[in-house]
Specification:
The complex is a heterotetramer of chains A (329), B (503), C (316) and D (326). Chain B has 503 residues and is of the alpha/beta class. Chain B is built from 17 helices and 24 strands. Chain B folds into three domains: 240 residues, Rossmann fold; 171 residues, P-loop containing nucleotide triphosphate hydrolases (Rossmann fold); 75 residues, no CATH class. In chain B, the strands form six sheets. A six-stranded mixed sheet of chain B has the order 6-9-10-3-11-12, with helices on both faces. The relative contact order of chain B is 0.11. The longest helix of chain C has 27 residues. In chain C, helix 2 packs across helix 8, helix 2 runs antiparallel to helix 12 and helix 4 packs across helix 5. In chain C, 73% of the residues lie in helices and 1% in strands. In chain D, the strands form two sheets. In chain D, strands 6, 7, 8, 9, 10 and 11 form a six-stranded parallel sheet that branches. In chain D, strands 2-1-3-4-5 form a five-stranded parallel sheet, with helices on both faces. Classes of the chains: A mainly alpha (329), B alpha/beta (503), C mainly alpha (316), D alpha/beta (326). Chains in contact: A-B, A-C, A-D, B-C, C-D. Chains C and D meet through helix 2, helix 6, strand 2 and helix 12 of C and helix 4, strand 8, helix 10, helix 11 and helix 12 of D. The structure holds adenosine-5'-triphosphate (2 copies) and magnesium ion (2 copies). One magnesium ion binds next to helix 1 of chain B.
Chain lengths: 329, 503, 316, 326
């Protein structure tokens, strides 16, 4: 793992550089971008939902899994929550939102862990299921925000949008969880070799169910923020989110094959996507071109990662052999 | 002997940072079985992969049947008469036996004069013929995943015979076979030899070399060392060539004073796998488990350690009945299992030594769920010293260690759990002579410190050399028990095959 | 019994159910409408099936089909007949999809990520290349959907589909190439050792799939006189779902084409079927999701059972 | 402000209003004016026509001596969500544009951002589909909600009667909307449903709102396939549908084209198709005698956009253009 860690270190620096370059370029081209109000209220605020979901998604991808249904969990939980809020008040709305998110996550987790259906297949199917449920239940109409959602989605605290604080707290917690805790270590174990991890006495099924459920909960949180921010939400609001979140995680240097990755990368990638999204808009670059920029940056980073990866591992292998030779004589 | 069918001259092969083969030469005659031996990483497999076109040599020449050849891929070498059965199986689990045998060189006929269409009938006939020659029956349309190890091996051999090869290479074919299957394999090798085939045979089991080989070539660290007639050498001499020094004691068993019965398994049972298992072991004892592949030894030990959820029965440790529902429970009680398959179940090879060692009991290495990396490192360093793991530092990635050292890491990992009973499943599989002896020494020392060891092995000499008592298993039952004094290779084999013996 | 068998059984039950409860479902016009939908899903799913068998995946399929729709339309707009724009679109599909294959094999980027990236390129480049969508397409363009009817009944796209299925079934059984696909999906290294040129095979699989996407694009595009730039975006999930429902494992190496055919048919059936039952088509996604989940769960449980039996000693 | 003008103004209004622009010339001349136009989606002909119109208008204004910069962007068709619209709006607000014209995907979702823009002194015009009334300065309603619904139902009824239907021979109808969040389309939809409850039209029946009102979403292929299913349900008889309304610029042409594509077409003299779309999109179906799509409510969105740009200097009145009829 040491090689991997060294590699991550350099890759994160590369990400940071990309972020700085993009940031600087946009600020020079249109100084409006630099206004603190725009940075806080638009640039950051707009990526909070994506950022929140990409945290648990990083964990899931590290275990070698994937969740294609996150966006749809979001909208389903927000919708049922909003319906409940309409009948039973705001508090009930929040509780129901989280319960639905949790239930969706558990549903995915149990099928993946217990029935052993591949994550990609399970969440592809549940993507259709959750999307369809939302669509069928609303008949295509919007659901509307309720006070508790507005509190996290459209209010300020100390002049800064509330959701930014929420994101920062979650990011720190997830960082500690993944990088420092026993839970995180086990996640890496599962991603690198789930059999061997099981033979270390780790209950893999429970771990997997937990992270998918956690993902469901984070989706519910993001959903509250989102519906609060927009004051209403339609059934198809989540569909684009699924692949976007995966893009962020992968851009952050987490291997889709599982076993390597860290949250610093994911957080940096979230910021890059945020700056790009809002930055290109201020530059009046049409949405289509923005899509190309996203795709290109993803490809460049993948290629860069591959090159860094190959270079480091072959260099490392050489070092290893010489070290071994010295040691064993 | 006959004509030379294969000649490798001055082969050099480097990988990034590794000189895998340094000026190695080798030749094979018609109708001979030529062994290659050497420690792990000596370059045996690499040499054969160069020969069969998997790798291209940096320099050197390959002469097959008198012609100078360069193979871009294995298919080319197959077609010129060299067939290889790789160390790691290269079968396709979801495909049928027939599809596997002919993959990449299917016979086809032209339909409409131009469209090549697979000719299943011809392939089927050819396959049947081959299996008749091998004296085996396998349904050609079953998927590989439903076959057992031995049958898979048989398919591999059958596959290699689908080419009109006169040179056949076996790279450690017996690593996952047991005695009976090995015997069957040997009779096939002998009959192929009679047909005039030249056979290259790679194995870590020196006994096998003396049983069927004519000549033996030794490699060490990618260097050619020697070629000898098997009749004119002996085991010690071979080993000396392999490790570069003379070795005397392969089984350094130290006699220890046995304590009272510490661990008992009673009426153990797992539908379809295990039947009425009873055994006991005394403190400090090394208890062996012999049996053919699939006899259920691994299954038994996994079940006892809570790794098979459906098994039932009583496990009594220190007079206390344990209730074990999963492996975590077993570990807590001091019952620890070291898997036979290092890469798959034993270690997370992409993690460092310290991370592997702490993995089973992360709780002990953490405060409030946060891992104490200093403690991890310190504990790992201790074990590295204790059982001499050759690695620069505890944060060294396991992947970069040699097989023997990897095995030692998995033992260290088990020891860190502070076991009372240590279960070692095939602790020296695929490990070279030198490392093997070291591991045996570690095992001996551990019992000296009062640890009790259950050891599964398919190598009878190892069991005979190391164990105080040996149980024999067959089809999920214990069919015999021998004390160190009574046990002989013949008796154990007979019991394992026929199921009789003193119970 | 195989997954395909159970699926077929399920399909027959559903069809019987519809015969009783969905009045008018078996009207010729509805059946043909159903076929129309089935045609394009299936043809793309055949390509997707090949890709998934090699244990890769293509999430760019939807965006790519959108690109191909526009290519077809921009040719069709000039009055070129289908005899020209179909092959050209297929060729374009082959080339663009080959780029995916090259990304994956040459740069060693996992398929899902590589195609995720190219999705964004395809989606972005399109609106730049054509400003807005293409309208007022001539009768030569819509000929396939409007006028080309075999025996005055069967849409010609159905003929295209039948050709693809029959060729596909024969190809998967009788070609050397198909064995390579399965071999790669099972054991990439093993395939390499058996002399299979893994990279080239994967690239070819993507290329063939791309050509099939071309046919799908033409069927989708010619359905009306306008072709928009986002025509098929998001459809990749339907294609993948058809393959998965048909019993092909996303881990690769297994799965039969006939399963994909049945899977695609079941998925195409859902929306019209529930509409004829008096339910809003809004529920169709939920029902599709439910069917896929039930199917994969059932076969996973089945496999588990089987494994247990064959692992019993003595039973070898 | 009151948004609904029930009587459609005559088409000539457009021409008359041209003279209004120079009146305000003094306060705006010399100053750079940034006008942003945000359609519901890009890549769909109705909206693409708006873009052409907007560009023409911008050019015209430039020719008239104004320093106008036009920003035109919107979500791609498959991502016609309020999130995208809000993202774009935020960018424009930050740049300090002078006016924004929006066709709202979802009225309630976009209104908070529109209000924020208003607070910054940006003039907000909505067109096609309105926001919440207090979030904009002006709503340009191409056609009054009742007007469109009335035109559709009136014409359909006339046509149906020609084909032998009437109070003694009732018909079943179906409606194809797009999504439930389109303010205008939903208003037409509910007006149609109101109208067919009146004595005059109560022989036109919506049997089952669940299965007979379609919401295919913004997806082109889904729209086509659902239209196909609908066409296959049409024909003679009480269990069939005789009249289909496609009340968006995507669904009306889809009905036309799916009819052409259908095998075993329901007889042209037994069913009626109609809808709302641009003239170009329906032209060929209307011209085809074999297609039951005989009329549609048509208008020219290009003029709509021209007009909007021109109007921005004088906000005084609400305008409704004529609904041209065939
Ligand atoms: N693809 C490769 N890349 C880099 N190094 C390699 C590669 N294959 C083998 N090596 C190295 O070449 C050396 C020889 O390996 P080889 O597999 O031939 O050993 P072996 O004698 O077959 O050992 P074993 O008994 O364990 O099978 C080893 O040091 C090994 O690490
Ligand atoms: N050679 C084989 N042929 C068929 N099946 C096998 C073979 N080896 C293992 N199995 C299957 O694996 C299961 C587990 O066998 P297990 O590994 O417990 O036996 P073992 O005695 O430990 O064998 P080994 O010596 O390979 O470790 C058996 O029930 C059997 O079905
Ligand atoms: Mg080897
Ligand atoms: Mg075993």
């Amino acid at each position: 793992m040491k090689t991997v860690k060294k590699l991550k270190f350099t890759f994160n620096i590369a990400l940071l550089l990309i972020l700085i370059v993009i940031f600087a370029a946009i600020s020079i081209l249109n100084p409006v971008f630099l206004s603190p109000e725009y940075l806080l209220n638009v640039v950051l605020r707009n990526v909070v939902e994506l950022g929140l979901i990409s945290l648990p998604m990083t964990l899931i991808i590290i275990t070698g899994g994937i969740d294609l249904s996150v966006g749809n969990i979001m909208v389903l939980s927000a919708m049922v929550g909003a319906m409940a809020a309409g009948r039973m008040g705001s508090v009930a709305g929040v509780i129901v939102t989280f319960l639905v998110g949790l239930a969706c996550g558990l549903f995915n987790g149990i099928i993946i862990a217990k029935v052993k259906v591949p994550a990609m297949v399970t969440t592809l199917a549940s993507m259709f299921l959750f999307l369809g449920l939302t669509r069928g239940m609303t008949g295509g109409d919007s659901v509307y925000a309720f006070p508790a959602a507005e509190a996290v989605g459209s209010k300020l605290f100390l002049g800064i949008p509330v959701q930014i604080f929420i994101y920062m707290i979650c990011a720190v917690l997830f960082y500690i969880l993944l990088a420092k805790s026993t839970f995180g270590r086990r996640l890496f174990g599962i991603g690198l070799n789930s059999n061997a991890t099981k033979y270390c006495g780790v209950d893999i099924e429970k771990m997997l169910i937990r992270i998918y459920a956690l993902s469901g909960l984070m989706c519910a949180l993001a959903a509250l923020i989102m519906i609060g921010r927009f004051s209403s939400l339609r059934y198809d609001a989540g569909t684009n989110i699924n692949l976007k979140v995966i893009t962020i995680v992968v851009l952050g240097g987490t291997s889709i094959l599982g076993g390597t990755g860290d949250l610093k990368g994911t957080i940096l990638a979230t910021l890059i996507i945020g700056v790009l999204n809002s930055g290109l808009t201020v530059l009046n670059i049409p949405i289509d071109t923005q899509t190309i920029v996203h795709g290109t940056i993803l490809i460049i980073s993948l290629i860069a990662y591959e090159i860094v990866n190959r270079r480091t591992s072959s260099k490392r292998l050489k070092e290893v052999k010489t070290e071994l030779l010295k040691k064993t004589g | 002997m006959g004509e030379t069918v294969l000649e490798l001259k001055n082969i050099v092969k480097t990988f990034p940072g590794v000189l895998a083969l340094n000026d190695v030469s080798f030749d094979l005659e018609k109708g001979e079985v030529h062994a290659i031996c050497g420690e792990n990483g000596a370059g045996k497999s690499t040499l054969m992969k160069v020969l069969s076109g998997v790798y291209q040599p940096d320099s050197g020449e390959i002469h097959v049947n008198g012609q100078n050849r360069k193979f871009a891929n294995p298919m080319e070498s197959y077609k010129s008469g060299v067939s290889i059965i790789f160390q790691e199986t290269s079968l396709f689990e979801e495909m049928t036996v027939l599809e596997n045998m002919f993959l990449g060189h299917e016979t086809s006929k032209k339909t409409l004069g131009f469209l090549p269409v697979l000719n299943y009938r011809e392939m089927r006939e050819k396959a049947r013929e081959i299996f008749k020659r091998l004296n085996t029956k396998i349904d050609l349309d079953t998927k590989i995943k439903t076959l057992g190890m031995a049958q898979k091996q048989m398919v591999e051999i059958a596959k290699s015979l689908t080419f009109d090869a006169n040179i056949l290479i076996f790279d450690e074919p017996t690593a996952s076979l047991t005695q009976r299957e090995v015997d069957a394999l040997f009779s096939i090798i002998l009959s192929l030899k009679k047909e005039g085939m030249g056979i290259v045979y790679i194995s870590h089991r020196l006994e096998e070399i003396f049983e069927i080989c004519d000549r033996v070539t030794v490699l060490r660290d990618g260097q050619y060392i020697s070629t000898k007639n098997v009749g004119g050498t002996n085991k010690d001499e071979l080993v000396a060539d392999m490790v570069g020094r003379t070795m005397h004691n392969y089984y350094p068993k130290t006699e220890t004073e046995l304590g009272d019965v510490i661990f008992r398994v009673e009426n153990f049972y797992d539908e379809g796998f295990l039947e009425n298992i009873n055994f006991e072991v005394r403190k400090g004892e090394i208890l062996g488990f012999a049996g053919l592949a699939g006899a259920g030894r691994t299954e038994l030990m996994e079940a006892v350690c809570g790794l098979a959820p459906k098994a039932q029965g009583e496990v009594i440790l220190d007079g206390k009945k344990l209730s074990i529902s999963d492996y975590t429970d077993a570990m807590k009680e001091g019952l620890v299992y070291v898997s036979e398959d290092r890469g798959k179940y034993g270690l997370i090879v992409d993690m460092s030594i310290e991370e592997n060692i702490s993995m089973p009991q992360l709780k002990d290495f953490s405060k409030f769920g946060i891992i104490d990396r200093k403690k991890e490192s310190a504990v790992a360093a201790e074990y590295m010293k204790e059982i001499t793991i050759k690695a620069p530092s505890p944060d060294f990635t396991v992947n970069n260690l040699s097989g023997g050292n990897q095995q030692k890491v998995s033992i260290a990992k088990a020891l860190a759990i502070q076991p009372k009973i240590l279960v070692l499943d095939e602790p020296t599989r695929g490990v070279d002579v030198n490392a093997k002896a070291e591991i045996h020494k570690i095992i001996s020392e551990l019992t000296g410190k009062g640890l009790t060891i259950l050891m599964i092995s398919s190598e009878l000499p190892e069991l005979l050399g190391m164990c105080d008592r040996i149980y024999v298993m067959k089809e999920g039952r214990i069919v015999g028990c021998f004390s160190r004094q009574d046990a002989t290779q013949d008796k154990i084999l007979k019991t394992a095959l026929e199921g009789e013996g003193e119970e | 019994m195989t997954t395909e068998f159970y699926l077929l059984l399920f399909l027959i039950l559903v069809l019987l159910f519809l015969a009783v409860f969905a009045k008018g479902f078996y009207d010729l016009s509805n059946l043909m409408n159903l076929l129309n939908r089935f045609n394009y899903v299936l043809i793309a799913a055949v390509g997707m099936n090949m890709i998934i068998i090699t244990s890769n995946i293509d999430v760019s399929a939807g965006a790519l089909v959108s690109v191909l729709c526009i290519i077809a339309a921009s040719l069709g707009k000039q009055g070129l007949p289908i005899g020209v724009f179909l092959p050209v679109t297929m060729a374009a599909g082959a080339v663009l999809s080959m780029i995916n294959g090259l990304f994956i094999t040459k740069l060693h980027i996992p398929a899902i990520v590589a195609t995720l990236a190219t999705t964004q390129l395809f989606q972005g480049v399109l609106p730049l290349a054509v400003n807005g969508s293409i309208y007022d397409l001539p009768a030569t363009f819509t000929w396939l959907a409007y006028d080309a009817k075999l025996f005055g009944i069967f849409p010609a796209s159905t003929v295209l589909m039948l050709v693809v299925i029959v060729t596909g079934l024969l190809f998967m059984k009788y070609s050397k190439f198909s064995k390579k696909l399965y071999a790669i999906g099972n054991n990439k290294n093993g395939a390499r050792l058996a002399g299979v040129n893994v990279d080239r095979t994967i690239v070819i699989a993507y290329t063939i799939a791309g050509a099939l996407y071309g046919i799908t694009a033409v069927i989708i595009g010619t359905a009306s006189q306008r072709v928009t730039t986002t025509m098929a975006n998001g459809k990749e999930m339907t294609f993948i779902a058809a393959v998965v429902l048909g019993g092909t494992s996303t881990a690769g190496g297994s799965g039969k084409l006939i399963g994909t055919v049945i899977g695609a048919f079941i998925l195409s059936l859902v929306s019209p079927a529930i509409n004829y039952l008096g339910i809003s088509p809004d529920w169709s996604d939920a029902i599709m999701g439910g069917i896929i989940i039930l199917s994969v769960v059932a076969s996973a449980v089945n496999i588990k059972k089987k494994r247990r039996i064959s692992a019993a000693p003595g039973g070898r | 402000k009151d948004t609904d003008t029930s009587a459609p103004a005559p088409a000539q209004t457009t021409k008359d209003e041209q003279s209004a622009a120079p009146a305000d010339q003094k306060d705006t001349q010399g100053k750079k004016i940034k006008i942003a136009v945000l359609p519901k989606m890009k890549g769909e002909n109705y909206w693409d026509a708006c873009q052409v119109g907007a560009e023409d208008a911008a050019k015209e204004l430039k020719d008239a001596g104004y320093d106008v910069e036009l920003l035109y962007d919107g979500p791609p068709q498959d991502q016609a969500t309020n999130q995208k619209q809000v993202d774009l709006l935020e960018g424009w607000i930050a740049q300090g544009v002078d006016a924004v014209a929006v066709g709202c995907v979802d009225a309630s979702a976009i209104s908070p951002t529109l209000k924020k823009a208003q607070e910054k002194g940006i003039k907000i015009v909505t067109f096609d589909s309105d926001s919440e009334p207090d979030a904009r300065d002006l709503f340009i309603n191409q056609a009054s909600y009742e007007g469109v619904a009335k035109a559709l139902v009136e014409n359909a009824a006339a046509e149906l009667k020609e084909k032998g239907y009437g109070p003694e021979n009732p018909v079943n109808i179906a409606i194809m909307g797009q999504t439930k969040t389109d303010t205008n389309v939903e208003a037409w939809n509910s007006n149609i449903q109101e109208l067919i409850k009146t004595d005059e039209y109560n022989w036109m029946k919506l049997q089952n709102p669940d299965s007979d009102i379609y919401y295919p979403g913004a997806d082109e292929v889904e729209t086509q396939t659902q239209a196909g299913t609908l066409i296959s349900r049409m024909g003679e008889g009480a269990d069939k549908i005789q009249c289909a309304f496609g009340i968006t610029s995507m669904t009306a042409p889809a009905l036309g084209s799916q009819y052409e594509a259908s095998t075993n077409k329901p007889p042209v003299d037994k069913i009626v198709l109609t809808g709302v779309a641009t003239p170009n999109a329906l032209k060929s179906y209307i011209l085809n005698e074999q297609n039951p799509l005989k009329f549609g409510v048509l208008w020219n969105t290009m003029d709509l956009a021209i007009w909007r740009c021109r109007r921005r200097t004088s906000w005084r009145q609400e305008i409704s253009p004529q609904i041209p009829r065939r």
